[in-house]
Each structure stands twice: as structure tokens, then as C-alpha cells.
Amino acid sequence: MADGEADPRWGFATRALHVGQGPDPTTGAVVQPIHLATTYRQSAVGVHQGFEYSRSGNPTRHALEECLASLESARHCLTFASGLAATTTVLLLLDAGDHVVVNDDVYGGTARLFTRVLSRYGLRFDSADLRDPGALREALTERTRMVWLESPTNPLLRLVDIAAVAEIARERGALTVVDNTFATPVLQNPLALGADIAVHSSTKYLGGHSDVVGGAVMLDDDALAVSLRFHQNAVGAVPSPFDCWLLLRGVKTLSLRVRQQCANALAVARFLEGHAAVQAVHHPGLESHPQHALAVRQMSGGGGMVSFEVDTEERALELLSRLRVFLLAESLGAVESLAEHPGRMTHASIAAEERRRVGVGDGLIRLSVGVEDLDDLVRDLDQALAVSG
How much is the pTM? Predict the structure, then answer.
């Protein structure tokens, strides 16, 4: 077996460390080199050693794509300069007039891209509560070519039965695309559940250290991969070699980080659930979550995200101002714990009336739970809630 070639017996953590990352054949270095070259010598016109121009392909990016494909148990992976660049490229598989059904509780940047950018070029979007298969069937039209979903959703951590949605979409000839950023490949594999494409903001858990922006698309279908690779090159929203190297470094500890974040998040959620100042807590690992049974069936852990609600926006903003271990910041999935106000921050691009309609209220706070000592996280929330109460 060649260096960097996956052994089918390898587990997730082993693949994260070794696939695409064998010792450098020239120096024996155990860390993947950063290949900064923008162009590559051709031995004759059109004859090259796999690379010709770094927008089209780069050795460091190739190593990252090979590794991420293995983690998502996919045949293909393409990486991008951001999660939204990955999302945009997937939507370029469609033609003007095509219709997309998207679940109504999605990241604000995704909703903004769909409704304020891509709709100007002839794509049509309708939202539906995809927890209900009947709502999906009602939303489908003759021109539906794609169903886009998050599970868990951002920020309310609702779950969608991926297998059920994929079956309905397949009956109508539509692709099922799952944003798997919150769950990560550690906890959930959408392709194994019937989805056609998995998308990640690799800025989040895959990178894991708040120091790189990126996106990734994983899939099995060869023809779709060829089309996506064409658009990746034609549009050019590709990551730099250094970004790819940072992501390769990040995924080495992905399994360790996510497992610890899951444990911390569940404990934080249970603490919040018992606090008098908290009106509601959203976390798939809680037995009180309305879709807990689906979480147990579809995921191998509840994830590192927790959302909770207090009675007013004023109370939420006061609480956020009091936190010290949780940092007030957007993004998520990194080793440090973050807190934010979706209505004013990550989902501010969505009209307030629409946000409230789907349940993103003014008193909602979203936590990305990190790997700090659990006692410190709970103590930080307790003192902030005591003041706000």
C-alpha cells in the first residue's frame, strides 16, 4: 500500500491523520508540504504530471480533497475559498428557471445568497419546514431540481430526516444537498443516508481553530463531480495552498475536538434547561428535544451547538455582555467557545418578521461550545444568567 493510500480497515481518526498525507517522497517530511507554485512545467504541450495551473489543481489542495472525501466516505471532494463559494458552485449545477426547495430555518448567509443574489439569475427558491415530508411534497414543482437542507439547522438545531427527504426528492428527479457543517463527518454522513451532495463550511469544525476560511463539497456521482470540477475551475473561488494546509492540520484533531465539544455542549444544555431564567433550550442530545429519537438514529452525537431563549432581546444582549469565557463573536465550531445573537448577527440579513415566523426570536442566543473545562463554561453562563435574571 502506497504512502497516503487509505487502508479500508482504517477508522475515522486514522484516516484524518493519514489519507492524502503520506511522508513527502523527496524529504520524508511527515507533514504535508505547502506547494505555493502557481504554474507547473509541462514536458510537452498538454503533457504534465497531474498539475498545470493552481486554479485548476494544486498538490496541497489535492491532498486536502483526498482526505476530506475519505472522512465523508465520498468518492469526490472539491474545496473552495469559503462555505458560500462552495454553496454557489453547487447551485451552478442548475439552469435558469429551475426550482429549489430549502428548509425555512437556514443560515442567514445561505438565505441571502439564494433570495438576493441567485434569484436574480433565474433560479427560483421556496422555503418549507422540511421536518414534515408533507410540506416538502407540497413545495415541489415540475421544475424542482434540488432540495437544500441543513440538519441540524442554524440556529434552532432542528433535524430533518435526511433519508426520507432524499427518497422524496429522488422520486421527482431532484438532487438532495445537505449542509453538514453543524454535524460534521464525525457525527453524520449524509451520503450514506441517501443525499447526493454534502456541503461544509470548513471554516468551522473542519478547521477548528478560527484561523482559516474555506468550503468543501463531497459527493459520489462521477458526472456531477466532473461538472462541479469544471465550475470550480471556471469560477475560480478556490482556496490558497496555505488555507489547505491549515485545514489539513485542523482535521487531524477533528474527532477528538468534536467528541469533547459534544460532551461539553450536552452538559451545558442540561444546565441551561434547569435554569429559571431560560425559557427554552435547543440541543438534539436532550431527551426533551422533539426530534431526539431521530438524532439517535441519524447522528452519533448531539453536536457542539446549543441555542437557548430568554424572555426579551434586552435580557439576551445584557447576558451576552456579561460573558467572559464565551466570546461574543460570529462563526462556530472552533476550540474556543463563542456566543452570539442570531437576530442581530448571523441572521440579521433576514427580515425580522420572517425570522420570528420560523422561530428565531429576539431572545434567542446561539452558543458554539468549545473544549474548555466544563466547570468554567457552566460558571460563566451561571453568572451571566444570574445578572440577567
Answer: 0.95
Nearest to 78 by CA among 229, 250, 248, 244: 229
If we measure between CA atoms, which residue out of 169, 174, 200 comes closest to residue 69? 200
pLDDT tens sequence across 18-52: 999 888 888 899 998 999 999 999 989 877 778 99
* 356's grid cell: 420570528
Q: Check 98, 105, 179, 362 and give the catalytic one.
A: 179
Does residue 105 carry a catalytic annotation? no
Whether 120 is catalytic is: no
* Distance in angstroms (rounded) separating the CA atoms of residues 23 and 27: 8
Residue 55: name the closest of 175, 235, 227 by CA. Answer: 235
Place of cell 462563526: 331
Question: Which residues are CB-neighbours of 44 under 8 A, at least 6 positions away?
Answer: none
Cell output for 239: 482556496
Pairing label, strands 99-103, 124-128: parallel
Phi and psi at residue 195, to the nearest 5°:
-70, 155
**Of the residues 107, 158, 355, 380, which is catalytic?**
107
Cβ contacts of 94 within 8 Å, gap of 6 or more: 100, 123, 145, 146
Instruction: Give the chain's domains with CATH numbers.
Output: 12-251 (3.40.640.10), 254-388 (3.90.1150.10)
Per-residue confidence at 388, pLDDT binned at 50, 70, 90? very low
Q: Is 205 a catalytic residue?
A: no
The verdict on whether 158 is a catalytic residue reads no
d(CA 203, CA 285): 24
Catalytic residue among 124, 158, 204, 366: 204
Given the residues 40, 55, 229, 249, the one annotated as active site:
55
